[in-house]
Structures are given as C-alpha cells and as structure tokens.
Amino acid sequence: MAHPLEPASVSDQSGSPGPYPAELECDVLLSDGRTAHLRAIRPEDGPALRAFGAKLSTETVYFRFFSPRRSIGDEEIAHYVTVDYYDRLALVSFVDGELVAVARYDRCGDTPAALDSGAAADPERARPALEEAEVAFVVRDDHQGRGLGTVLLEHLASAAAQRGIGRFVADTLPDNYRMINVFRSVGFDEHALLDSGVIRVTLELKSRPEYLQRVEERERTAAVRSIEPLLRPKSVAVIADGEAGSSLGHDIVRNLLAGGFTGDVFPVDPRVGSVCGLASYAALGEVPGRVDLAVTAVPQRLLAEIVRECGAKGVGGLVVVASGDPDDEAGTGRDRELVELARHFGMRLVGPECMGVVNACPEVAMNASVAEHPPAPGNVAFSSQSGGLGIALLGEMGARGLGISSFVSLGNKADVSGNDLLRFWEDDARTEVILLYLESFGNPRKFSRIARRVARKKPIVAVKSARTVSGRRGAYGQGAGAVGDEATDALFRQAGVIRVGTLEELLEVADVLASQPLPAGRRVAIVGNAGGCAILAADACESYGLEVPELAPPTQQALAEVVSHDASLGNPVELAASATALEYRRVLDIVLGAEDIDAVVVTFTPAGSAGADEIAQAVSEAASGAAKPVLANFIVTEGTLGALRSGPRRVPWFAYPESAARAMSLVAPYAQWMSRPEGAVPAFDDIDVASARRIVETALSSPAVGGGSEQAGSARVPVASSVWLDTTSAFALLEAYKIAVLPWRRASTVAEAVEGASALGYPVALKLDAPVLAHKSDVGGVRLNLASGDEVASGAESLLTRFGPAVSLIVQPMAPEGVETVVGVVEDPSFGPLVMFGLGGKEAELFRDQMWSLVPMTTEDVRGLVSGLRSSPLLTGYRGGALVDLTALFELLSRVGCLAEDIPEIAELSLNPVVVSPGGSVALDVRVRVAAAAHEPPLVRRAMRTA
What we know:
34% of the residues lie in helices and 22% in strands. The protein is an alpha/beta fold. The radius of gyration is 33 Å and the shape is flat.
C-alpha cells in the first residue's frame, strides 16, 4: 500500500495540485488534555518531515514499512509533500512547533488522478469519483498513546468523505497492536482479513451512531483533562504588575490565601519582594517545581510574553483576568493571536477579560477570582460570559444560602467555552446543578449534542441574553440569525435545558433544583395560614400552566381530622391565621402523601402568637421525608429564613407567592422531559441522497443563474449562487426523500392543462408555476375545484392571458379534506438547518403558530413539534373533528429533517400547505432555495473552536 513515508508509483503522482484546503486546518485536543495543531501538508514541510523521520524508532519504522529503512532522501521528501488534495491528501500534526504525526490517503484505482492536463480547464474531462482509498499514518514514538493517530484518522476520513471516498483500506503487520487498535476503536464499520502474514483492514466511512458516540466520548475525555489544570490545580502562580496591595493580581493572591487553597501559591511580580506575606518571584521561570495554573492580571501589551513564559514552564492552564488597560482594544485580532500562542504550547485559556475561576470544593478550596467572598461549598456550578454580572450573582447566591461547586467567568470566551465546562461538570461528583449565563453560542450544534446528554444526568439552567432585536443589536451590532430567538428556544427545548428569562429566575430555579426532588407532574397543592397569599399562589400556578386540582375526598377527610378549626380543605388548604407548627406538619404530611399531588407551595403570614421559626422548622422536617418538592413563601425576617435553610432539608424561600409558582412552572417541564424516552433519529433505507445532491449541484452550477465552477484539487465544485429550484427539480428533490406530494402535471398551453387534468382526474386545481411566489393566491394565480375540461380550459386561458404566454401552469387534483399545516426549513448561519412546523392556510402568518427544531431530529423531537402548537388539538379530534394520521405526519417531518441534514445547500424550503387528514399527509406545493453550504462535514470530527 502507499504509505505516508513510502514512495508511490509514478502514476500516483500525476495531476496538478489543487488549491490548498485551508478549511482542514484546526487545533485539536488530545487525550491527555493538551493541544495539537493539524493541517494539510505543504511543499515547504520537507525539512520538518525529514526531522520527523529521523526521530522514529527502529520498531516504528519496521511496523510502518514492514522492513528496516534508510534515511529519507530528497526525491522521497519531494514526493511526500506533493499531493493534489483530492486523490492524494496528507495531514500533519504539530506539537510545540514540531511535526509529530502524519496521515495520508491515496485513492485506489487504475485511473490516474486527472485524465490529462486539460481536466482542470474542462469539467467534462474531470476525473471520475473512486470510492476506495489506501490509508496509513505514523506517530512519533514520544507522542504515541496521546490519541494523535485516532484524531488524524477522523479528520482524514471526513476529508475523504467530502471528496467522494466511501472506504479506507490499510495493511498492517499482526504485531502492530497500536495501529490495529486505532482502526478498531475509531467507530467505523471495520473488517479485517489476514493474508500472507499481513492484516488488511477495511473501514466503511459512514456516519453511524456508534461512530458519533465514540467521537463524542473521546472529545469529552480530552476536554475534561484539559479543564483539570484550570479547576483542580495543585499549584497556582499569580502574575501581577503593580505595587504591593494595588494590583488586581495581588487581590487574587489574597483571595486564594483567604479561601484556604489547598495547593501552593506563587506570586510573580518583579516590582515587589513579597505579596500577602509570600515571597514574590521576578519571573515565572524562577518558580520552583511545577505550575498547573497561571492567573495573570497584566496589561494587554504584556500578555504574549506571559504566554510564552507559561509555555516554557509547562503550565497547563491560563486565566487572563481583566486588566483595565486603557490601551486594550476590544474586537481586534489580539484574542485570536493569544489563543493560537497558548495552544502552540498545549495550554487552555480562560478569558481574556474575565473575572477569574473558583472551585469551592473542600479538597481544592480555590478562589482565583476577584470575588472577595464567594459562596460556601455546594452543589451548583456556574458559568458566566459576563464577568461583572457573574461576580454579582455569586454574591446573590451567597445571600440566598446557595453553595457552589465551581464558578468560571468566561470573559471573551476566546478558548474555553461553555461546551468545555459542560463536559467537565457532567461527571463532576460535586456538581448537581449547572447554571449558565450566555450571550452567544460558539458552536450551537455541538452545544445541543452535549447538553442533551448532560441534562439527562444534571439539570442545566440558562439565561440567554440578546433575545430581542434590540438585545441582539446591543450584543452584536445588528440582528443575527435567520429566525431570531426561535432557534435558541428550539435548542434548549430539545436538549432539556431550562431556559429562564431573568437573572432572578435563574437563582430561584437553582434554589429549587439544588435542594428539592423533581416533581412527577404539574399538580400543585397550596397550604397556608392566610387566604390572600394562598389564593395569589393558586392564581399564579394556573397562569403559569400548572394545575391546582381539588383534593380527593379521602385527602380532605384526613385533613379534617388533624385541624382544630374550620378551614378550607379543597386546595388551597387554608389554615387559620393562628395555625401551629404541629398543624402545618400534619397537614403537609397528608398533602405530600396524596397520589394526585406532585408538589406543594407553603405560604405563611405572621399573625398573633404563631411562631415563624417553629413553623419553618416543621416545613423543613416535612419536606425532608417527602419525594416531592416543597417551596415556601414566608413573609418573615432573615432569622426565620435560617430555619428554612438549615433544617433537615433546605427549603427554597420566595418573597412572593407568584415567584414560587413561577419557579415550579419552570422546573416542571424539565421533569416531564426527563420522564420521556430519549428517542432516536429515524433512518430511512429508501432515501436517494445521490439524486438529491445531483439536483442541487446542477442548479448551483447553472450559468443561467449566475453560477459557475471553480477548481478544488482537480474536481469541479459549484460556485455559490442563491437560486430557487424550478418546480420539476423541487418536486424531484422531495421524491428522492419519499416525501409525500400531491400528483401534478405541468402545462404551458390550454390543451396541455386539459390533458393533464384528464390524466389526474377531476376536480382539479390550476396554479401558476412560479417558485419565487410564496402566495400565488394573493396575485390571483390559483383556480380551484375545476370539475370539467371546459372549466380547466377557461381557467387556464384566463391565467395565461393575465400573466402572459411565457408562464407555465401546474395542474393537480383537489386535495383531500383535512387540516392545512406548513412545513419549512431555514438554514441559520449559527445553528444550521432548522425545521419549522405550524398552522397553515391564509391565516398562518397572522397567527404565527409555529414550532422550530434543530436537526438531526429524534422521534421525540418530531412529536414535540406537533404537540407544541397551540392549534395541535385540531389534529386530534377537536370538537368532534376527524382524527388525522399522526404517524404519517411524523414520518413526513422526519424525512424533511433528514433532507435538511443531508443537503446543507438547502437555504430555504417551504411545503405550504401540507394537508393532514385521516388518510395521511401530503404536500400540495413546494418552494426550495439553494445556496452554498457552510455546514459541518459529512463525518463529525473533533476540532477546537476558532478564537
């Protein structure tokens, strides 16, 4: 086989190199948490490749070449770095600036890479696509075992799939266990055959659940390892720049010491001799021993040199705190340069312009932040993209008695992001609830995949700012995204993230989740000693979508036996103003034991001699033995709150009854999401992806729409043009995915219209063949219920006369009776394809009863699209209406989701209307706009986000 460090035949080298594939260049996380740089090989890499080969061990050379090898000659070096980036592609990986690994594929087959030198100029003479390629990789001995081979194979496979290759083959010796294990563990469908003492491995380059799962697991493991130096360091160096006691860095040293950090603290400040009683070092290099984490609070102009010092010292993580330097320029390329430099040395970076990090767990006790008094240790992890806001919320959490496990102020989020932290907190034993304050998503689709998995283990509560046009203008300078905030709503809903609208709600919901079990449903009982608060709580519960059911007669009878006065026992349960702690306890025990109640809100208003502290203690004791959440609305002093918070089970307190109801209404949907099955992305074996791709590529490459083609290697690819597909192509696209469409005929003349109607059967509809028009009826371009040839002829003649003989018409049979809906796809620049489902008909845009979903969509996502509409009862027999075929509707939506995922060039798709009836679901019309795709590659690959 053609090996990365082995000469190939002369025919392998034919064809001219294509444009350099810069899109393949990225940083990757290795299994030990350090970073590496990956890119396609370049002609100038010859010297680095020679040095790489010289450092390979005898055993590695033998395993790779099946025999001892001499040093690499000039001619071989020239061959190794000469690829066409299409039929022959090599990727190289750099660590600390040194080339440490290389992987290569060579397309198989007798056909040369390009038929001749004229192929580049003539697309008709371009090479045929061959589906198989030989692959091999080499990793330098001192970097083996770090996951380099696997990540190179992932990226090479993704690039190969984009270039029409569907299978890798590789030869290896039976004793080469490392190579064999990489092939077997990557997650592709793998086959191995032993022949003549050599194992030939075949990998099918197809995305499948097992592959995606293994890629994500490898990425999760690497991310956790990379975050450990930031949140679980054993030594911290604080690099300051100022006189003693006056710099931000000195404040952080003081906070580390005051918080009882369990590791070593090393102040680094050349201007002073000591900081907070600790000897200060003039430079980081002078610090004795290992430094896991460096925190720096220096002006921007000094940061690059600080990063170099950290790299030379082998620091694992770097936190760049806001410096307040007047020379700092937000929005410049400095963040990118800083991150690239940090990754060059294998470091992760938090910030810049952040407020630090905190790990309150007793075994670490690290306050490397500007927060002088962070909350006590607890089970809530918190990430904030706004530094100042995050520090302020830490203070609010402390005031509420909420403890934290760890806190990260992300600042500019140039490197470490919320996705990294979610992976870290997923299996962190100290973390049970995760809070996020987000201003933007670095990679929404990756966030969705991670959050969907993490939320099954731990609740995630998020505030996402920039929800409105005004908010987005303030955050980004202008509105962003194709569908506004609906995309974020869809992401959070599918992933099980609890979205809250305000910072107050963030803390209130965290309070409930951190101390109480999840409710089994939405049924709430209200217990109080004053009718006003109890009634307000009941009103608020129902207004927020909760239920306040009448208590069952056995429950009311049990309550009547334990209260010593007249009381309203239906729900709310209104006790006397003088109700005692014992009465509260007995009533709560009964209500919490009722099978038709899922949660309890307790209200208390001081009156007479009733003891607030004793009642608070009783509520806490009742809650401690219950499997249902208890929330308290006590109008009391701070001292009484201590009884609620320090009892057998901490009970969340709310100043107003409406606040308690609102918090429960935000938690209940998450509990329902947790109780649902996860669902699976449906797979259809009758989909013709190749035909769909040809339709789109033909449209984009048509000169008639301003398209063209450019060279990529020796392959022709369409030039980006946004174009509406003609009706024939649009319907053919749906046919490729077996999406049900009402039969149709095109007609350019009156005679053709009558002929088409006769073939389809009467009555029929006539409409303009105008893909650009969203609403043909608005311009008089539709004729319905034409029951004969004469009516069709008259209708066709009037349309052709009105709109001109150059137009054509569409003839269709009248649709069955049913509910009109609309199904659509929009490509959002940040979130990727989004599928929309809503109420159809002329009033659709007026009422905007729509739901959105990211792709890929599971079966549960599809059900949520349908059930989430306000008008969804129309599909389930509302007021005697017919029950429609929901199974057919679910399948149509699933197929549209697959189309949106597979064909990223679909910028906009509209099926309007889709008639849903007892007999099935069928689309009557389709509009499709296609454009160049900025989409994830066919095979998911691990890559760090660009700063």
